[in-house]
Amino acid sequence: MAISQSPMYGSIKQDGNVPKVLYKQAFGSGGVEHENTTDAADLFSYSIPANTLEVGDIVRVKIYATVIDSNGSDTLTPILNIAGSACATGAALDVADNDVVWAEAEIFVTKIGSAGAMNAFGKMTTNTGDTQVCLGSALSSKDTTAAIAIALNVDWDAAHADNEVRLDAAIVEVL
After folding, report:
1. What CATH number is attached to the domain comprising 153?
2. Residue 139 falls inside a structural domain
3. Whose CA, among 12, 152, 159, 174, lies 20 to 30 Å from 41?
4. Is residue 106 part of a domain?
């Protein structure tokens, strides 16, 4: 199938298909926070509905979070999970107030059904010393007839009222 370029959407199939936004939200100061605990938790989660994906689809995920407050040398570990598998894991970051965490991934659907398969390429970027982690993952036995979960999991190494990270924006789209 022929592909053309659009300044707004990038590549567009000649049949008129454009990226389909499954989820988007810009939270700003009203975003979900993870604070004062050493229990890992999903700062962001979304499930792609069952039977949505087709072979050849590319799922693009982008998530942006901000460290609101940190206490001393406590560290934050972010992990981007796709269908229960880590797609990108940030190092334990010695974050400071107003540091950012940017998680992104592209997931290529290669097989659908109860034993579906995907290849995921994820990247975790922060402004803490320009930390960047990239990871490629072969995801097998992913049931596309069920919902496919996407999550940004975060974990503080120490519980303190001043350890706060906030979800600012997220988008999940199928190309």
Report:
1. 2.60.120
2. yes
3. 174
4. yes
pLDDT in tens, 97-156: 888 888 899 999 999 999 999 998 888 887 765 566 667 778 888 999 999 999 999 888
Give how far Cα 26 sits from Cα of 19, 125, 126, 136, 143, Å.
Answer: 19, 19, 19, 27, 29
- Give the range of the structural domain holding residue 77, as residue numbers without chain letter: 18-174
Domain for residue 76, yes or no?
A: yes
Give 66-104 pLDDT, tens digit per residue: 888 777 777 888 888 888 888 877 777 777 788 888 889
Degrees to nearest 5, angle at CA 165 with 164 and 171: 160
Contacts 24+ apart (CB under 8 A), 94-97: 94/128, 95/67, 95/70, 95/126, 95/128, 95/165, 96/67, 96/70, 96/128, 97/67, 97/68, 97/69, 97/70
Report CA torsion sign: 163, 35, 27, 64: positive
Sign of the C-alpha dihedral computed for residues 165, 44, 60 and 105 taken in this order? positive
Q: Name the CA dihedral angle for 131, 120, 140, 170, rounded to a multiple of 10 degrees.
A: 90
Tokens representing 37? 């605990």
Token digits for 173?
A: 């789209």
CB count within 10 Å of CB 60 equals 16
Q: What is the pTM of this model?
A: 0.81
